[in-house]
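User: structure tokens for this one?
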Amino acid sequence: MWIANEWTDYEVLDTSDGEKLERWGDYLLIRPDPQVIWNTPRRENGWRTPNAHYHRSSKGGGEWEFFKLPDEWTISYRELRFRLKPFSFKHTGLFPEQAVNWNWFGRLIRQAGRPVKVLNLFAYTGGATLSAAAAGASVTHVDASKGMVGWAKENAAASGLANAPIRFLVDDCIKFVERELRRGNHYDGIIMDPPSYGRGPKGEIWKMEENIWSFIELTSGLLSEKPLFYLINSYTTGLQPAVLSYMMNLAIARRFGGKVEAEEIGLPVTRTGLILPCGASGRWSRQ
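Assistant:
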């Protein structure tokens, strides 16, 4: 398992009965987590004094209950700064477990010794985009949500990267890739964090299990002659790391050589010393 264990402004304090207690900077949040199927005593004090608690509804969705939480606040990871706020379906605008992948491709970019172009698809609020830009890459950031792209721009400014070579685009990822192929554009690194289910700006439907293989094949055509890396993240239940590895070996390693790895990603839990699983990632690199 790849573990995001270098945070100072974030930690999972404890987990029990379908929920996790987290520290986001100075604030404690309780949020649901479907992986937490165990029920252990809640001895951590934060369980009784959170700043916010997201309650799941038996009918689907849920709502926040707030206790002295600001509308927005900021946390840091290394040189990067991220704006946070509670919004629909339990999210805060950041997935801390992805830091383990930021470290990985950031190191590859820094060691490349040449200009590196990166494409970040389904790019959300820009954690991967900023990590790649801070490492020295020029980045194309694509997401179908205008609000998320705007948020990513604000994170870039907060991180001192307002003038970095980042191109922010609101677009359907599949249609954008198809146009880039027709234009003959290429990238040295590709990052994608596709949702299990989603809709594009014009109602385009994305279903991970149905679309991911054809999309990997499609995006592999955007890789440069000497690409550096390719990363896929998955939070889709049932899509095992070995499945990501198989697809990337077929679509990328057979053409470019290199190495494919795939693992669960996770976060350490402070109280127990154990690791909370948080999805899966597949990585390809020339190294």
